[in-house]
C-alpha cells in the first residue's frame, strides 16, 4: 500500500478536476443571477459558447481514448503506467483540463452570461497550482527524460 501512495501525484485527495470546473461554472451562473454583467450576449455569442462547450467535451473524449489505448489511468490521484503523448496529447499536455476550461467559459456564455470569462483565469490558476504542477512533478520523476522531452515539445495548454 505504501508503494501505491509513493507512485502517484501528491494531489490532495479532495481535489477532483471535474468538480473544480463545475464549481467555476456554478459560480459564474450564480453570479449572473445575483450580479448580472450588464452586457447582453448576442445570439452568435451563445452559439459560440455552445461550440466551446462541445469542443471541450470532445477534448475529454479524445483524451479518454488515448488513455484507454495506453491502458493507463485517468485518475489524477492514481499511478500512471504509461506516458501518453499521442492523439490529442500531441497538441496539449492537458486536453482534459483545456476542455474543462472551454466549458467554464462556454457553458455560461451559452446561457447568456459573461461571468465564465471572468471565472476562467481563476480556474486556470486553481488547476495549475493544485493539480497540474503536482502531476508534472510526478511525471518528471517517473518518466524522467522522456517526459522532459515531451514537455519541451508540447505546451501545457495550447
Description:
The chain has 5 helices and no strands. It has helices spanning 2-6, 17-34, 43-70, 95-110, 115-153. The model is unreliable at 1-5 (pLDDT under 50). It has one domain (48-158): Four Helix Bundle (Hemerythrin (Met), subunit A) (Up-down Bundle), CATH 1.20.120.1630. It is an all-alpha fold and 158 residues long.
Identify the notable features of this structure and list them briefly:
mainly alpha, 158 residues, Four Helix Bundle (Hemerythrin (Met), subunit A), elongated
* Tally of discrete structural domains: 1
Biggest sheet features: none
What is the CA-CA span between the terminal residues? 36 Å
- What is the CATH-assigned architecture? Up-down Bundle
Mean pLDDT: 95
Poorly predicted spans: 1-5
Helix content: 55-70%
The shape, in one word, is elongated
By secondary-structure content and strand pairing, the structural class works out as mainly alpha
CATH topological fold name:
Four Helix Bundle (Hemerythrin (Met), subunit A)
Rg, rounded, reads 17 Å
Order of helices and strands: HHHHH
Alpha plus pi helix count: 5
Beta percentage is under 5%
The count of DSSP E runs of length 2 or more, i.e. the number of strands, is 0
The top-level CATH class is Mainly Alpha
Amino acid at each position: 500500500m505504501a508503494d501505491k501512495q509513493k507512485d502517484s501525484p501528491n494531489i490532495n485527495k479532495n481535489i477532483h478536476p471535474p468538480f473544480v470546473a463545475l464549481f467555476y461554472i456554478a459560480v459564474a451562473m450564480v453570479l449572473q443571477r445575483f450580479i448580472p454583467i450588464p452586457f447582453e450576449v448576442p445570439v452568435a455569442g451563445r452559439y459560440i459558447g455552445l461550440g466551446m462547450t462541445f469542443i471541450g467535451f470532445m477534448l475529454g473524449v479524445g483524451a479518454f481514448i488515448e488513455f484507454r489505448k495506453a491502458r493507463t489511468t485517468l485518475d489524477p490521484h492514481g499511478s500512471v503506467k504509461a506516458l501518453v503523448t499521442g492523439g490529442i496529447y500531441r497538441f496539449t499536455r492537458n486536453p482534459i483540463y483545456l476542455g474543462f476550461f472551454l466549458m467554464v467559459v462556454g457553458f455560461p456564455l451559452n446561457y447568456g452570461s459573461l461571468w465564465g470569462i471572468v471565472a476562467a483565469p481563476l480556474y486556470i490558476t486553481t488547476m495549475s497550482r493544485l493539480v497540474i504542477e503536482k502531476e508534472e512533478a510526478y511525471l518528471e520523476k517517473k518518466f524522467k527524460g522522456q517526459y522532459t522531452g515531451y514537455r519541451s515539445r508540447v505546451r501545457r495548454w495550447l
